[in-house]
């Protein structure tokens, strides 16, 4: 298996710096995700690992081998593109076999390896079918099979599920993860979809404007965001500016002296508080303790598995979003009703404002 090390990687296109001094080590056999909004540098980084771009500065290493300026065909990486990049005039077999034929593998070995990988992606019955006759999910699995059949050291996937509908995306997430674990291959996955990142990854690197903001496991990224960008981009949160006063932290938007049981040693004056919607307590009767607000139910949204309640607080100047599991119509709040709100101190996280 292969580990990937990016050391002080920078990529410039003219005056634009797409990636800035990136340091990442991806472990052998790890499912590692680059996550971020469009234009944040995640695909550029993937392409530098693949060899399609060379860094303006820094080094790319596979294990201990310097691959910084090695051409793509000599890197033994398998790439799955957003648009699949299949040959529509070829059959499933011909598409999957293409990389092996380029490598001049003998016919018997080509047949064995193609049939084996199509068995693994559950497409062997379609081996002689034109790819243009396949569904989107089947075409995606052909693209995966074509990348895996060459037995790459590293599998690279660039937003491979973005063209599929929601239900098919769920199925393909499980399929990709199953194959990755079965092959034990080091996998680097690019997406802007936080659900994909949280459900599939061993670790995630969160990107914004060419900078890596945080690297961690899905639970670390979600529960311990290092700044306001990560807190807001991963999942949903209620995010408000706070300031330090002689009596502690004060949030003007909530007109609340904020108590938190989390360690807060930041000296940075530009700080915010983050509270996840599912962490907030609501009650029709008066609540005791700290971080208690009185509000009015402004809107209730039913989504199926959960219910979102939007609560106006601070005399209607500020809205809090609160999420709860769907426990039946009798538990839904009534719009316009009064409600007590508590932000549990162990769920209030103080984070710095991200630097550009």
TrEMBL record:
Enzyme type, top EC level: translocase
InterPro entries to which the protein is assigned, alphabetical: AAA+_ATPase, ABC_transporter-like_ATP-bd, ABC_transporter-like_CS, ABC_transpr_MalK/UgpC-like, Mo/tungstate-bd_C_term_dom, NA-bd_OB-fold, P-loop_NTPase, PotA-like
Keyword Cell membrane attributed: yes
Enzymatic reactions: ATP + H2O + polyamine-[polyamine-binding protein]Side 1 = ADP + phosphate + polyamineSide 2 + [polyamine-binding protein]Side 1
GO cellular component, one term: ATP-binding cassette (ABC) transporter complex, substrate-binding subunit-containing
E.C. number: 7.6.2.11
Keywords: ATP-binding, Cell membrane, Membrane, Nucleotide-binding, Translocase, Transport
GO molecular function: ABC-type polyamine transporter activity; ATP binding; ATP hydrolysis activity
SUPFAM superfamilies: MOP-like (SSF50331), P-loop containing nucleoside triphosphate hydrolases (SSF52540)
Domain ABC transporter: 4-234
Tree of life domain: Bacteria
Family: Belongs to the ABC transporter superfamily. Spermidine/putrescine importer (TC 3.A.1.11.1) family.
Function: Part of the ABC transporter complex PotABCD involved in spermidine/putrescine import. Responsible for energy coupling to the transport system.
Self-association and partners: The complex is composed of two ATP-binding proteins (PotA), two transmembrane proteins (PotB and PotC) and a solute-binding protein (PotD).
Name this polypeptide is given: Spermidine/putrescine import ATP-binding protein PotA
Source organism: Guptibacillus hwajinpoensis
